[in-house]
Amino acid sequence: MRPLTIQRLFLQCAVLAGILFVVVIIALKAGAVEVSLFALGRDLIRVIVHHGGEIKSDYGLIVMNIRLPRILLGIFVGASLAVAGTGFQALLRNPLADPYVLGVSNGAALGAILALLVSPHLSLLPAVADLLTPLGAFLGAAATIAAVYFLGRHEGQIDSTTLLLGGVITGSFLAAIIMFLMTSETGSNLRGMAYWLMGNLSTSLQPTVYWILWIGFLLGAGAIYTTASDLNLLLSGEKEAMHLGVDLPRVRLVVYIAASLLTGLAVSVSGSIGYVGLLVPHVMRQIFGSDHRVLLPTAAFGGAIAVVIADTIGRTVVPPAELPVGAMTALAGAPLFIYLLRRRMA
């Protein structure tokens, strides 16, 4: 494993940030209505020169009110799911671990739906009500990964096959509960969740919610990053890592809670977007190596790039209709999942 230097880490992240910037520019321009970036830039310069005001052109309204918010949301969701997937894969020592495959996404979705069902019956301040759905998603994700973890334990060790099967079964069970709630309720909000559950970045959010999401991301990703050196030692096995001084219960607690937080926040605003936490860590691992001190931040950038690209393709492939983001990520992630599964069985 190559020694880590700040310069090398900064250069790698800077390259990915440059790619993300190009992807964002393309996403701003592409769509059912193609936006002239020259006209938009001219409007932005006019607003800056006049020290305020609003962009009144149609291009400006499309970009600032529709496309830019969903791009920012896609960056958050992709980064969160990729970091969570990286943490799960390292801690469980299973390359197939992913919030979607392990059922954590469905647990978060169920928690978010239950929170939406309960919130109308509670007298809550608007600021508190905005927190109820992310909180429900976090609790649902945390409860699900705890259940899957205990299902995967065998004689004090994690059995990868049992863990994977436990995650698939748990996810299917939770999906059945979600379908029951959606078909038994008559509220229009729950009826509209069928599209949301397939992955949707067009959710309209208040500025306060954006702050909550990004603060939650920094806390969750930062907590996982503090365990990066321990996750490197865990690659050789739990017993070997404990002999080398790794506090395994602490690392498990930190990664499980932080990854559940990231998954819960992402699912609460975008629905269930699968395979990002599976696909991105493997791609970044092939490019930058398995050192989690490098892998975690590069996976965050990679996840953001992947989701923004998937959303842009979904918006433009059959205009003016939109394909769910989850469908686009599944088209890329499902074949990789099959490949990895067959390689482990070989």
How many strands? 2
Q: What ranges have pLDDT less than 50 throughout 5 or more consecutive residues? A: none
Mean pLDDT: 82
Helix/strand structural class: mainly alpha
Q: SSE string, helix = H, strand = E?
A: HHHHHEEHHHHHHHHHH
Q: Which CATH-level-2 architecture?
A: Orthogonal Bundle
Largest beta-sheet characterization = 2 strands, antiparallel
Task: Describe the 3D structure.
This protein is mostly helical and 346 residues long. The protein has a single domain (72-345), classed as ABC transporter involved in vitamin B12 uptake, BtuC (Orthogonal Bundle). Helices cover 75% and strands 1% of the residues. The protein contains 15 helices and two strands. A two-stranded antiparallel ribbon has the order 1-2. The longest helix is centred in the first third of the chain and has 35 residues, at 58-92. It is globular, with a radius of gyration of 21 Å.
